[in-house]
Amino acid sequence: MNTEAKLRKLDEIFQTLGKTAVAFSGGVDSTFLAAAAKRTLGDNALAVTAVSATLAEDERIEAVKLAEKIGIRHVMLETDEMNDTLYTANSAERCYFCKKIRYQRLVAWASAHGYPWVVEGSNVDDDRDYRPGLRAVAEQAEVRSPLKEAGLTKAEIREVSKQRNLPTWEKPSAACLASRIEYGMPLTPERLKQAELAEKFIRPLCKGQLRVRHHGTLARIEVEREWISKLAEPETARKIAKKLKELGFHHVALDLSGYRMGSLNQDLEKK
Questions:
Q1: Are 118 and 110 in contact (CB under 8 A)?
Q2: Distance CA 190, CA 30 (A)
Q3: Which of 134, 177, 188, 250 could be bridged to 217 by S-S, CB 3.0 to 4.6 A?
């Protein structure tokens, strides 16, 4: 099936669903999904952003701006996964517990406000990575994944986003702040904020993907390989180390392997 046929199928899915709430993070996929929902459903489409300590402030602000650009009504919904010890224990099932809590909250809110369906932005490529959160999505009968159902890939979503003038078409893939914290180390607002502020400081010094992985007293910086030498320059490295130590890290390391999606999952694979 070519891309045009997939887009027609996506429109058909929305037409079948009718009034729909879009789980909206402001990332590549959810922005494309929200814009497609607005395009097909008009005012029957609503964007909902889950807000908790795992959402970086810059991402929250950007989500508001993107919703305004799309022209879709936008709601910020507080979620309470940080109060659940199964989630904050930060096991390999962390994402499952998070998604379960969030989608139960989102479905309940949507239903109470007249939206019988919730849609989320998984695409067909997501099945290639370790994503326990997808199980939680599958367990919610009121939650659908239209991009995956239409057969759209990440590359197709980026290309069509570009054609439709969505600014996220070249936005690096993002993940919640919890993805920075080493498995087994309890999630706390303080640790999440450490990772957020560390990345905010480093972001102007490089382009593309950036992650500061939190290993307790050690901060491990991942950037795309072409930026490793730039961050390793003595003066730049000194400034980064000084800032991250001010944030509470004792040791600062630049990962010479560069950015890898889900690099913390490597230990799980070994086990």
A1: yes
A2: 27
A3: 250
Angstrom distance (rounded) from CA 178 to CA 156: 28
- Supply the pTM of this predicted model: 0.89
Largest CA distance in the chain: 58
Q: What is the DSSP string of 226-266?
A: GGHHHHTSHHHHHHHHHHHHHTT-SEEEE-TT---TTGGGH
Q: Residue 221: how many CB atoms within 10 A of its CB? A: 23
Q: Residue 268's CB: how many other CB atoms inside 10 A?
A: 12
What does the alpha-carbon distance between residue 169 and residue 52 come to, in Å, rounded to a whole number?
Answer: 25
* Phi, psi dihedral angles at 57 (to 5 degrees): -60, -40
CB distance 130 to 265 below 8 Å:
yes
pLDDT tens per residue across span 95-141: 999 999 999 999 999 999 999 999 999 999 887 767 788 898 899 89
Q: What is the dihedral of CA 152, 153, 159, 161, to 10 degrees?
A: 60
DSSP lists the bridge partners of residue 50 as: 77
Per-residue pLDDT tens for 155-189?
999 999 999 999 999 998 888 999 999 999 999 99
Q: Are 7 and 103 in contact (CB under 8 A)?
A: no
- Helix ranges, the chain (H): 3-17, 28-41, 57-70, 85-88, 94-112, 133-139, 146-149, 154-163, 189-202, 228-231, 234-246, 266-270
